[in-house]
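Quick one: structure tokens for this chain, please?
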Amino acid sequence: MKEYQNPLVERYSSKEMLYNFSPKKKFTTWRTLWLALAEGQKELGLNINEEQINDLKKHLHDIDWERVSFYEKKFRHDVMAHLYAFGEKAILAKPILHLGATSAFLVDNTDLILIRDGLEMILNKLIHILFRLRNFTLEYHNLPTLAFTHYQPAQLTTVGKRSSLWMNSLLLDVEELEFRLKNICFRGVKGTVGTAASFKELFNGDLQKVKNLEKKLSNKFGFKKIFSVTGQTYDRKVDTQILNLLSNISQSSHKFSNDLRLLQNLKEIEEPFEKEQIGSSAMAYKKNPILSERIASLAKYVISLSNSSAMVAATQWLERTLDDSANRRLVIPQSFLATDAILMIWNNILENIVVYPKMIKKHIDQELPFLVTESIIVESVKKGSNRQEIHERIRIHSMNTNEKIKLEGKENDFIKRILDDKKIPIDEKKMNQILDHKKFIGFSSEQALEFIDKQINPVLDKFHHFIDESNNNMDLKV
């Protein structure tokens, strides 16, 4: 292979997302917009006949790529290249093609269509992940585990409560995505600089007909809203909003990948590892978390691209400048393709994620003795001991235990020291009651279950049609 291949195409993204941003869909949409424009103009009284409309329909999909390439080299203008190539096929309709329109009629409206369709694909994958996380949380909502602050053992939580935090991040992303989908607008027929001057002339100054044409087109392409005002292009701040959303999804994904890699190092939770998978070319014993690492790697890329769209939005001139074009050709599709890949990987991890309860318990047992000192003091005082004296005994034992652990690599024998100390009135039976893991998880289980019931299940119910479908296009390429 001599030529560079984009890894997002070759290795990572789904067929459906690749098609969404493919030349075929893009330029077929251009032709569909030309057809819809002509149909709307005919219905509103312009001199366009049915034969011309049928001619456009007949040649909607037979794009002659060689002729397009020829004309683009000749004109150095992609829209004019496609216009001429289409006109060579749809000869009857050639005189009325692109009537009153500017390039942005095709380019911007098509971009908005592709963005909207891409968001719907992303939403589908987000719902699948929420569904899997919901089930994981239900399974492990009551399994105690060490919680960490500053990556230092803190108190106890549950495995399910921790996974509810991952869900909460995704829920925020789903809510934002729904908002963007609900409020995305069609550019419409705003003309060369956004004034619709050409359409004013075509319809002899009849503003209502121009509005009717916009409404017909927006309905045809599934948009409920139309930009009230634009320059030649729609406000590029819209692109920034969309890429910020994809960045937010990537941030949630990266956070999950961080947590999973930390937990895999502790041997508590592990991403799936295939039977014949090789972790390292040198260290045959290794099970590297490559899926989580891939999420993190792609997420960084998406997060960085959001800055590019912000720069474009900030530096547009007056009604338009073309220094947005090459940037948008790269940044918008690749942000979607990378986010799509991230969510496929995340879904794949959750399909076969592995939890090791015994390792989780082992780590609790190593740290819990230090977390129960207050309970030991309280129980001792109940039996008549002096609070300050017991506190001092516990302090000495804990310091000595820590020294043995850190300097000599010994196991935590703090509990044995307490039981052997005749001045601390705690027997083994009472100590076992004190050390019950579930006494230290607070309301973790209840919080996770209530969160699912009140916030996650309504979302999953709302989008149940996504979950009912098979997981098409969710298999990883590599």
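The domain at 7-96 is CATH 1.10.275.10 (Fumarase C; Chain B, domain 1).
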